[in-house]
């Protein structure tokens, strides 16, 4: 998928369980893609997940960088 906005929206759907049970690891991957594609909302969502350790990965320093770049 090459649309950062669509990736970000899909990540939210995975994160909150709109399309079934919440799937935080999938959300992390899709937010990562959104951010790589330059979508600021995807970077913020990825940073929020990393800040709280959702999906098993906690990385507050990277979260802060993502927030600053968004």
Would you kindly provide a brief summary of this structure?
By secondary structure, this protein is mostly helical. It has helices at 4-16, 24-36, 40-52, 60-69.
Mind explaining what this structure looks like?
The protein has helices at 4-16, 24-36, 40-52, 60-69. Helix content is 70%, strand content 0%. By secondary structure, the protein is an all-alpha fold. The chain is built from four helices and no strands. α2 packs antiparallel against α3.
Mean pLDDT: 95
Number of helices: 4
Rg calculated over all Cα atoms: 11 Å
**What's the main sheet like?**
none
Tell me the structural class. mainly alpha
Series of H and E elements: HHHH
Report low-confidence residues grouped into runs of 5 or more: none
Strand residue percentage:
under 5%
Overall geometric form: flat
Helix content: over 70%
End-to-end distance, in Å?
A: 20 Å
Beta strand count: 0
